[in-house]
Specification:
The chain contains nine helices and no strands. The protein has one domain: Orthogonal Bundle (Tetracycline Repressor, domain 2). It is mainly alpha-helical and 202 residues long. The longest helix has 28 residues. The N and C termini lie far apart (40 Å).
């Protein structure tokens, strides 16, 4: 369930602890991707959620706790979707990050706000971190390889995926792709990325 798939607020004040927490996480997940953690106002967030701003402190200990809960929620959705798209495999298929736009918008905004710690609270968690799962897989399947080489390969794969997510439209324009060619072009990019993923360490 994406941030948008959480139950919508009714426009009136929300009641009940679970409903309040859900509404706050939904609002925070949306706003993280829109304005980033620095510009996100607790009052604006509470207003969007349809709750009193004091509830942020009551349920999450303050803005930071809520931001971490929202990022963890988005990361868990991404982790589950990644497993589904990869058929349970460790490495998500090429260009699949676009399936989780809310998470990657929040991630990008947090990085641009120099709040890497917010991202790392998720990426240190083995239960919801796609990067940890991929890196562990590469280490397990190539135990004879130099660990720095493995980490460099992981970084290159991640950079390709993230770069496509952030700049797909620009890549289409600079590569002079006509609208009628976009689907075929995208499939060719996927095929190229898959070949890179499949390359062995030699």
């Amino acid at each position: 369930m994406s941030a948008a798939e959480l139950p919508p607020s009714s426009g009136s004040r929300i009641k009940g602890s679970e409903a309040v927490k859900t509404a706050l996480i939904k609002a925070a997940a949306e706003m993280l991707g829109e304005v980033g953690p620095k510009s996100l106002s607790v009052r604006d967030l509470a207003e969007r959620a349809g709750v009193n701003h004091g509830q942020v402190h009551h349920y999450f200990g303050g803005k930071r706790g809520l931001l971490e809960a929202a990022m963890r929620h988005l990361a868990k959705l991404h982790f589950d979707r990644s497993l589904e798209l990869s058929g349970g495999g460790a490495v998500p298929p090429p260009l699949s990050l676009t399936e989780d736009r809310a998470y990657f918008r929040a991630l990008c905004q947090s990085v641009m706000d120099d709040d890497i710690e917010l991202v790392m609270t998720v990426d240190r968690d083995d239960e919801i971190s796609v990067p940890l799962r991929v890196l562990r897989h590469l280490r397990e399947t190539h135990p004879e390889s130099n660990d720095l080489d493995i980490r460099a390969r992981f970084a290159a794969l991640a950079a390709m995926q993230l770069g496509w997510f952030a700049f797909e439209e620009l890549m289409m324009l600079t590569s002079e792709v006509a609208p009628a060619e976009e689907d075929d072009f995208r499939e060719r990019v996927k095929s190229f990325m898959q070949r890179v993923i499949d390359l062995g360490f030699d």
